[in-house]
Amino acid sequence: MPRTSDKKEKLVESAGKLFHQVGFNQTSIADIAEDSGVPLGNIHYYFKTKVDLVAEVLNSRKEAIESWFEELEKLPKPKDRLIKMLGDLEGMKHKVVKYGCPVGSLCQELDKERMPVSRQADGLIKIQLKWVTGQFRELGKQNPEDLGLQWMSSIHGTALLANALKDPKVIDRGIVRLKSWLKEL
Amino acid sequence: MPRTSDKKEKLVESAGKLFHQVGFNQTSIADIAEDSGVPLGNIHYYFKTKVDLVAEVLNSRKEAIESWFEELEKLPKPKDRLIKMLGDLEGMKHKVVKYGCPVGSLCQELDKERMPVSRQADGLIKIQLKWVTGQFRELGKQNPEDLGLQWMSSIHGTALLANALKDPKVIDRGIVRLKSWLKEL
DNA sequence: GTCTATATGTTGATAGAC
DNA sequence: GTCTATCAACATATAGAC
Fold it and tell me: Is it the case that residue B2 has pLDDT exceeding 90?
């Protein structure tokens, strides 16, 4: 018999998957009920509103990003961390081609909602940018903010193009480009 | 008294504006009716469905992009065309910060709809990429496709970041970066 | 061609039995 | 805590008078 928190986790998991694949507005609570196996009416026991649910999805995504960065920081050299970051991104390229970046596409969609949860979504981008900027700072670069912006905009732009062109090679080439750029830095 | 085509144009204009500012799914036909001044029931005389309307919005955006490129091609040198492209983008930075890129954000949203109109949206990205790639080819570069991808992903990624961070300086710095990169190319 | 009134379906959210 | 039944609001789309 599943514990309460199991159901909550399953709901967040299903919602996160569907928000990525189908979008926030296009996903109904009924869809989440079906995918998670939790009956429709029971969802509102765990999450008062749909916005509360997406807020929890964003929160879990934030934690995933933070533990990802902690994992990368086990590598001693910032350059190796950034290289590994690209390798990890390569591993999810097919999902990105099919559904777009799980962070970027959700941010863009929620930004149009003009609700507090939009800022929470934007926070995910900020976390990414801050960490990457920190790597360039640790490398002793004089303009770490600029290099961080360049790195993150290249990644998010590549994801958007790969999704639009439906071509994983776009991501491969983006990664090759960033790797050689980093090497010559 | 407005001609029929005037109403149609006004509808496409209002729909395009609202799809950009609020998003496709978040914009109801009633919203478009109010913004355009065309009564709700009359919209369906011009556009059978909401999808037909967004298809026309995409078509008008396509024509706008094509005439933009025709304008840029009046400049004899490809590098000057690309520089002017950046200058034009700078002129719309505040809208991008507020609402995201009118092409990129709509593409990402419609891509999740899995309808024929999604491919039409993706076509806008393809047109942009093709033209930019052509400029690098004209410059005699050996890898124009790669340079085109780099250019366009940088632009779309910068737009996404500027929207998330709500900071026009992100765009300014992206433009400076691309300009100096182009100069040294 | 124009516009009011409305049909029809879906949504997020709730009530209340168990 | 769980789940069925349902509400009220809103969506797209249509019917039909003018």
Answer: no
